[in-house]
Design goal:
Length: 467
C-alpha cells in the first residue's frame, strides 16, 4: 500500500450536475449532515464549489476544506479529478487527512454581545434613557408606534415603563434594570406584543450612565385597514404593495447590508469562497427588493385613479441618465451602451421620473439578455410633429412574432431565456412600463423584424406626445 492510499479517508463520485452519486461512509455522513441526500446535489459548500470549478475548467484541483456537521468541525485535504463525458462528466473526490475538531466554547460575554447585536438589528423602536430610565430620545420604524411616540411627546421626561403596559410585572416602577430586561409589554395603539431589552451604557453595569432601550416585536406589522381593502374577486388588492412592502423592505435591506459587509471583508479576514457566498446572498436580496418595488408599482398603475404628471421631458437626457445608472452592470458583461441623439431635440410631454423608470427597465432588460462583448443602441428622436420616440435595441436572442404577442402581459418573463442563467425578474417590468407609457398618452411596443432583416436582438420603442 502506497502513502497516498494510506492517507485516503474517503472517496466519492459526482455526476455532470454536481450530484454526489456514491461516497464512502465519512463523506456520505458529512454530506447528509449538511442537509444533502444520496444521491443528490453535493451539500458541503466548500466541496461543491471546488467540484464546480474543476468540472467547468476541466482541471485537477487539490485544496484544504472545512465544514460543520452540526456537532464538530471537519477538515481535510481533497483532490478533485474531473471525469470525461464517457466516464459521466462529473468528478472524483479523494479526501485525505480527515480530522474532526470540537467547536471552541463560546464564553458568556461573546454570546451576550451576539444576542445584543441581533436584537439591535431586529428592534423597530429604540430609545436612549438616562441613568434613572427616563426617556431622552426615541426613534421608530414601526407603523403602529404612533401612539407610543405621541404619549412621549405629550408627557416627556417620564420613565419608559410609564408609556407601556408591562406583562407580569406588578412591582412599583422603576425597578432595577436587570429585572426589566427581557420582559414583555404592549405599547399604545399596537396590537402586537413586544419584548424589551435594556442595555447599559458606560464602563460598568453597576452604575450605568444611561441605557439603550430596544423594543422588538414578535411579528411583522400589517395595518388592519389594509386587510379590509378587498377587491371584487375577494382578494386584498393593496396588501402586498401598501402593507407588506414597508414591513419586508427593512429586513431585506439588513440582509443585503450584512451580506455586503461579509463580502467586502469589512468585518475581518474571510476565505474567498465564503465571500462569494455572501455575494450570492446580497444579489438574492437585491432581487427580492426589486420584486417588492415591482409589486408596489403594480398596485399604483392598476389603481382606478392613477395619473401621471404632465411636464416637458428631454427623452435624450432621460436615456443618458438611465444608461449611466446601469453603466456598472453593463461593464460587468463588457457590454457597450451607445446613445444616438443625432436627430432634432426630442422634447416630449410626460413625467420625467416615469420616463426614466421605463428606460431603466428597457436598458436593464437589454443588458440581462445580451451576450458579453455586445452592443446596445439607444436612439431618441422626434418621430413626427406630434410624437417623440426612444428605441432600445440589443444583440441578444431576440423575440419572435409569437412571443411578441404576450410580452407585455402580467408576469410574462420576456418569453426568452437570459444569457448565462441571469434571472429574468418578476415578469412585471414591461407590463408596468407599458401601463406608464399609456398613462402619459404614449405607448410602448416591441418592433418585430421583417423577413429581410437579418439582425439579431430585440428592439423596443417608447413613444410619447411631443412637447
Amino acid at each position: 500500500m502506497n502513502r497516498q492510499q494510506s492517507l485516503l479517508a474517503a472517496r466519492g463520485l459526482t455526476d455532470g450536475s454536481d450530484r454526489l452519486i456514491t461516497a464512502d461512509e465519512p463523506l456520505a455522513d458529512l454530506h447528509e449532515a449538511c442537509g444533502g441526500a444520496l444521491p443528490g446535489t453535493l451539500a458541503v459548500p466548500e466541496l461543491l464549489d471546488l467540484v464546480q470549478q474543476g468540472r467547468r475548467m476541466g482541471l485537477r484541483i487539490a485544496r484544504e476544506f472545512s465544514a460543520f456537521d452540526g456537532e464538530e468541525m471537519v477538515t481535510g485535504f481533497v483532490r478533485i479529478h474531473p471525469l470525461s463525458d464517457e466516464e459521466g462528466g462529473g468528478c472524483e473526490l479523494l479526501v485525505e487527512n480527515w480530522q474532526r475538531t470540537p467547536l471552541p466554547q463560546t464564553n458568556s460575554q461573546e454570546l451576550g454581545e451576539r444576542i445584543d447585536a441581533i436584537d439591535r438589528a431586529a428592534a423597530e423602536i429604540t430609545a436612549r434613557l438616562d441613568a434613572r430610565q427616563r426617556v431622552q430620545i426615541v426613534s421608530t420604524t414601526a407603523g403602529d408606534a404612533t401612539g407610543f411616540q405621541s404619549a412621549i411627546s405629550t408627557q416627556p421626561g417620564k420613565v419608559w415603563s410609564d408609556y407601556v403596559e408591562l406583562h407580569e410585572v406588578a412591582h412599583h416602577q422603576p425597578l432595577h434594570w436587570r429585572l426589566l430586561d427581557g420582559t414583555r409589554c404592549t405599547i399604545p395603539g399596537s396590537q402586537r406584543e413586544w419584548r424589551t431589552r435594556l442595555l447599559p451604557i458606560g464602563p460598568g453595569t453597576a452604575s450605568p450612565r444611561g441605557f439603550e432601550l430596544l423594543l422588538v416585536a414578535d411579528e411583522p406589522f400589517v395595518p388592519v385597514d389594509m386587510l379590509d381593502d378587498i377587491d371584487e374577486e375577494g382578494e386584498h388588492s393593496r396588501l402586498v404593495g401598501s402593507a407588506l412592502t414597508p414591513v419586508l423592505r427593512q429586513p431585506i435591506a439588513r440582509i443585503i447590508a450584512n451580506a455586503e459587509t461579509i463580502r467586502t471583508r469589512l468585518a475581518g479576514p474571510l476565505r474567498e469562497e465564503y465571500s462569494e457566498y455572501a455575494g450570492h446572498i446580497s444579489a438574492a436580496g437585491q432581487h427580492l427588493s426589486g420584486m417588492l418595488d415591482d409589486l408596489a408599482d403594480l398596485e399604483v398603475v392598476e389603481a382606478a385613479d392613477f395619473q401621471t404628471a404632465s411636464e416637458p421631458v428631454d427623452v435624450a437626457d432621460a436615456a443618458s441618465r438611465a444608461a449611466g445608472i446601469l453603466g456598472v452592470r453593463a461593464q460587468d458583461k463588457a457590454i457597450t451602451v451607445e446613445l444616438s441623439d443625432s436627430c432634432a431635440p426630442a422634447m416630449a410631454t410626460g413625467e420625467f421620473r416615469r420616463v426614466l423608470q421605463i428606460l431603466i427597465n428597457l436598458i436593464g432588460n437589454a443588458i440581462a439578455y445580451s451576450p458579453e462583448n455586445s452592443r446596445i443602441l439607444v436612439t431618441s428622436c422626434a418621430s413626427s410633429r406630434d410624437t417623440v420616440s426612444v428605441t432600445v435595441r440589443d444583440e441578444g436572442p431576440g423575440v419572435d412574432a409569437q412571443q411578441a404577442t404576450k410580452i407585455f402581459e402580467k408576469f410574462e418573463r420576456l418569453g426568452r431565456d437570459s444569457d448565462g442563467g441571469n434571472d429574468s425578474g418578476s415578469g412585471l417590468g414591461l407590463y408596468i412600463s407599458r401601463k406608464l407609457a399609456l398613462a402619459m398618452g404614449g405607448d410602448l411596443e416591441i418592433m418585430t423584424p421583417d423577413s429581410a432583416d437579418q439582425r439579431t436582438g430585440a428592439e423596443f420603442r417608447l413613444t410619447l406626445p411631443a412637447d
